[in-house]
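note to self: dont lose this again. the chain is below, predicted strucutre after it. 145 aa total, dont forget to put it in the shared folder this time
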Amino acid sequence: MDAVESQLDSIETWPTTILTIIFAYDPHMLNALPQLETVIAFFYGNGIPLQLACQFFNACNGHTFMHVKEQFRSLYEYWSRPESRPYSNKYYYYNMQEGKYMYINGSYMYVSSRSFAPKTCFSGTGFPTIIRTILRSVSQLELKE
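---
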């Protein structure tokens, strides 16, 4: 967990929507793929290495889904190809260093005046105690980059 937080800051400062998906991902839900893509974009955009992102995601939700690993790998490879960069504005993420939403291709995303920085707290997920319990276990794991 330290390896992830060293690159992204404390997990308690991450957007609540990202935390909710990471800790409650269900591949059987209708919106499972878009939710997974949101998390992958968050990790990729913030520079988390592929292997570390997969390990952290699987450790936090308590499952090892083969399709998850494949989807992470597929999008990381696609987004890293120079020829795909102009078409990567379908995907956006919250850039933790900039404090702004950005497209995967590196351009800033226009956010209307109605929108603002994302909510960043465990309590906003609806299950903060469960997250803290899971994180105690995850912090004991040796995640490799």
